[in-house]
Amino acid sequence: KLSPCNSLLGVLLSAVGWLCSLCTTMMPFWLTLSTDLLPTESLEVGLWKTCAIQDLGLQECRPYNSLLGLPPDIKLARILMCAALGFGLMGSVLAVLGLNLINSCCRKMDDRRFKKVLKTAGGTLSLAAGILVLVPVSYIAHLTVVRFFDESVPDVVPRWEFGDSLFCGWTAGVLHLVAGTLLLISSLYLQEQNWNLPVHIPLVPVSQRHRSVRISAEYI
């Protein structure tokens, strides 16, 4: 069947998406700036620090001095990316617990229902993590494009461009969305299996049934 493959693939994509989200949050490469005055050096901006990188491989980074002095887009990106990491981690854990490969001490019917709930919760959290990642990344990319093509700024003024973290963030968001979709499809397939399970009807032995009929006849 396709359900176990969907579940396992969804868990793997969710884990890879979470790692990409972590790299996006920690790497100081959200925006990059290079000028003709310093062709051997580029400036990089991240959520937590700014870095000056030279062509020889030398790198000097400085963290932001004040939280209140940060631009609003950096503040928003910090909050949403941290929330995405939390949602993605919880979604991955719940999805792993909802795998059919993980045994539990519940009855078969209860175990299927419990795993369906875990997969549904994991898929929903993964979808939420993907949206939370895509919103700040796309918003900062939008602001960068608007500022890059701003005609009121002279051409001699250097412009910020996309950094590697933005592309990593888009990848993380797509992976989370695909993982959440696969997990929800797997939970729906598991629900259909629950409806098709045979219902166990206890059978009464023939001798015991005849005995009960005989006793009831004597009372009559």
From TrEMBL:
Which domain of life does this protein belong to?
Eukaryota
Q: How does it sit in the membrane?
A: Multi-pass membrane protein
List localization entries.
Answer: Cell junction, Tight junction; Cell membrane
Q: Which residues cross the membrane?
A: 7-31, 76-102, 123-149, 169-190
Q: Which GO molecular function annotations are given, in alphabetical order?
A: structural molecule activity
Q: Which PANTHER family match?
A: CLAUDIN
State the family named in the UniProt similarity comment for this chain.
Answer: Belongs to the claudin family.
Under which name does UniProt file this protein?
Answer: Claudin
